[in-house]
Amino acid sequence: VQLVESGGGSVQTGGSLRLACVASGGTFSSGAMGWFRQALGKEREFVARIRWSTGTTYTADSVKGRFFISRDNAKNSVYLQMNSLKPEDTAVYYCARTAGVGSNTQVKDYDYWGQGTRVTVSS
C-alpha cells in the first residue's frame, strides 16, 4: 500500500488549504483513512478519519467546524479541507490507512502512512 499526500503549503491566518491523499497498491473498500499531524517537538496527533464504505467521519475537537474530511472511492482518494487556519495548525500532515473498525483515533491503529505534507500558517 502506498499513500501520497499533496496540497500543503504556506498560508496566512484565516486562510484555507485542501490536502489530498491518493492510495494505491491495495483494496480500499473497507477500513478507514485518517489524517494526523505532527508539529515540531510534539507527538503526532489525530485530526480526522473517514470510513471507506460508509463515509462516516470523526473529527478531533481541536479542528471541528474548521476541518472537513471527505473521500472519493473511485479515485481511492481522501481529502482534508482546512478552513480558518490558525498558527497552531502548523505541522506536517500525514494520511494513514487502517483496516480496523474501532474508533481509529490512535497512531497505533494505522498500518500504512504517507510521507507527509507540510502546512505552515503565519500570523
Q: What would your notes on this structure say?
A:
The chain has 123 residues and is mostly beta strands. Helix content is 0%, strand content 50%. It has strands spanning 2-6, 9-12, 17-24, 32-38, 45-51, 57-59, 67-72, 77-82, 91-98, 112-113, 117-122. The strands form 2 sheets. Strands 2, 4, 5, 6, 9, 10 and 11 form a 7-stranded mixed sheet that branches. The protein has a 4-stranded antiparallel sheet with strand order 1-3-8-7, with no helix packed on it. The model has no long low-confidence stretch (mean pLDDT 95).
Element-level helix/strand string: EEEEEEEEEEE
Low-confidence stretches: none
Instruction: Round the Cα radius of gyration to an integer and report it.
Output: 13 Å
Task: Report on the biggest sheet.
Answer: 7 strands, mixed
- pLDDT averaged residue by residue: 95
Task: Describe the structure using short key phrases.
single chain; 123 residues; globular; seven-stranded mixed β-sheet
SSE layout:
Layout (H helix, E strand, L loop, with lengths): L1 E5 L2 E4 L4 E8 L7 E7 L6 E7 L5 E3 L7 E6 L4 E6 L8 E8 L13 E2 L3 E6 L1
Parallel strand pairs: 2-11
Antiparallel strand pairs: 1-3, 3-8, 4-5, 4-9, 5-6, 7-8, 9-10, 9-11
Short description:
This protein has 123 residues and is mainly β. The chain contains no helices and 11 strands.
